[in-house]
Backbone:
């Protein structure tokens, strides 16, 4: 059964497939089922010798705000022991914290998706507008060719409650550079893509109304390349990046994420999960931003 929150189209004549995150009410955030559906479509593209490019985009002018925070920590499932479950120990389940083995098991699978996307054997083009946050920001950076709106909001705000050692650290330092990577991870700042246009992080930074056409333009250009040459090049790129920048990335990413979801919060620090339980997700985000706001000096 397909998930209509992820759409898949194939333009066989031009050798281009398009994957669209179609969850606009949640700003195209995704849960595990959506992520698995994206992975399934990517496998179809990888296995089809007649496709050269996959274009990744979001519906209604928003790329993706990453993992669905309505389900934050819920992705680890029911953490009660078998004895507790059989005894119906509901109170214990509310208070228990996921074990490290549960965190590592789930995060190993989750980060396998990003690792595979980063090393995808066909050309990946990102059509990025609106928001690219969290996992959405990571996917935007992982694309081979990225077209982004100048007013698109990008960043890793989840570092404010999961800690700065979050996501593919190797990729952040390699693609953003160590100074910007540290700034964004250590503050959780969300910035507009236009403010870092001069750094050349994205292939094509343009006005919002040009993003779709520009992304299609780059996809069409890449699709004209020899298909065998593209696949060979992608494997060569992967080898070079693994040897120069990404050594240890596959393991480090999920280990640090598993640790990050097990933070202990001191008095006065912002605890997103506790705040969400008390006030709901929307209000928790507002209170998060209020807590972390520091006015610029005059």
Residues:
């Amino acid at each position: 059964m397909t998930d209509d929150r992820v759409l898949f189209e194939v333009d066989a004549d031009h050798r281009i497939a398009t994957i669209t995150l179609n969850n606009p009410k949640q700003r195209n955030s995704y849960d595990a089922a959506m992520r698995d559906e994206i992975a399934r479509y990517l496998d179809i593209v990888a296995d089809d010798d007649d496709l050269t490019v996959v274009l990744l985009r979001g519906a209604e002018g928003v790329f993706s705000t990453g993992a669905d925070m309505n389900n934050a920590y819920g992705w680890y499932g029911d953490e009660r022991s078998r004895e507790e479950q059989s005894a119906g120990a509901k109170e214990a389940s509310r208070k228990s914290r996921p074990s490290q083995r549960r965190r590592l098991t789930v995060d190993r699978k989750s980060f396998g998706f990003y690792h595979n996307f980063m090393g995808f054997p066909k050309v990946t083009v990102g059509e990025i507008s609106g928001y690219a946050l969290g996992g959405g920001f990571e996917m935007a950076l992982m694309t081979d060719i990225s077209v982004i709106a100048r007013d698109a909001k990008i960043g890793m705000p989840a570092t404010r409650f999961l800690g700065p050692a979050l996501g593919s650290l190797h990729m952040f330092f390699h693609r953003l550079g160590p100074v910007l990577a540290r700034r964004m991870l250590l503050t959780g700042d969300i910035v507009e893509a236009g403010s870092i246009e001069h750094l050349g992080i994205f292939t094509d930074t343009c006005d919002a109304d040009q993003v779709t056409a520009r992304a299609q333009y780059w996809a069409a250009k890449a699709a004209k390349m020899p298909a065998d040459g593209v696949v060979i090049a992608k494997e060569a790129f992967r080898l070079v990046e693994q040897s120069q920048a990404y050594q240890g990335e596959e393991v480090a990413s999920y280990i640090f994420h598993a640790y990050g979801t097990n933070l202990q919060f001191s008095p006065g620090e912002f605890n997103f999960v506790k705040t969400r339980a008390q006030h709901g997700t929307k209000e928790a985000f507002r209170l998060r931003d209020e807590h972390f706001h520091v006015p610029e000096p005059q």
Summary: Residues 100-118 form the longest helix (19 residues). Residues 44 and 51 are 9 Å apart (CA to CA). The chain has two domains: 6-74+98-263, 267-297. Residues 267-297 form one domain.
